[in-house]
Amino acid sequence: MRDKPKRTRIQRKNIETILEAALEVFSQYGFRGSTLDQIAQTAGLSKPNLLYYFPSKEAIHVELLSELMDTWLDPLRALDAGGEPIPEILAYVDRKLEMSRDFPRESRLFANEILQGAPRIEEAIKGELKELVDEKAAVISGWIDAGKIAPVDPYHLIFSIWSLTQHYADFEVQVQWILAERSKTSFEDAKAYLDQLFTKMLRT
């Protein structure tokens, strides 16, 4: 069986351009509201040129989600069972908040997919994501059993971290409008608030 030919520099550049354009379009309009024409126009490519690299809108969306899933799991993977519980959990909160600050479009892409019932990443959620959450929930339960943190439901603790950090990406415009002149420091302020909130919640 012959190996697939390696992509040229121009081909790699065009794929990156298409994915960047698709991220912009999907994060703004969602999967259903986006079209190949919009993606091609945003990428500065013709539609036939785009279809040379990706056969459909769904193929582009799946590629973006596949790349995103691994990045999305990294902050939780870094939660260290051998570390001090409260600093480890606060560090996870901070990593998730940083992702909302640095990757707001990716967060909205993921949120839109979940709101649609996750048809393109269902297996990843049921498999890789669930396995990782189960593993880290067991770590948190171990800390609780050892009396190192206050008793909380580990799964709902993780869910609350997701919701409280991803809010700043998924509702970015709302946060900016409400905070107005304070919006430039919104992530620093959010970090201080969330650190205080979770410290008080977890302290025994």
UniProtKB/TrEMBL annotation:
Gene3D superfamilies named in the record: Homeodomain-like, Tetracycline Repressor, domain 2
DNA-binding region residue numbers: 35-54
Keyword field contains ATP-binding: no
Protein's UniProt keywords contain Nucleotide-binding: no
GO biological process, alphabetically ordered: negative regulation of DNA-templated transcription
Domain HTH tetR-type stretches: 12-72
Keyword annotations from UniProtKB, A to Z: DNA-binding
SUPFAM superfamilies named among the record's database cross-references: Homeodomain-like, Tetracyclin repressor-like, C-terminal domain
MF annotations from Gene Ontology: DNA-binding transcription factor activity; transcription cis-regulatory region binding
Protein name: HTH-type transcriptional regulator RutR
Higher taxonomy: Bacteria, Pseudomonadati, Pseudomonadota, Alphaproteobacteria, Rhodobacterales
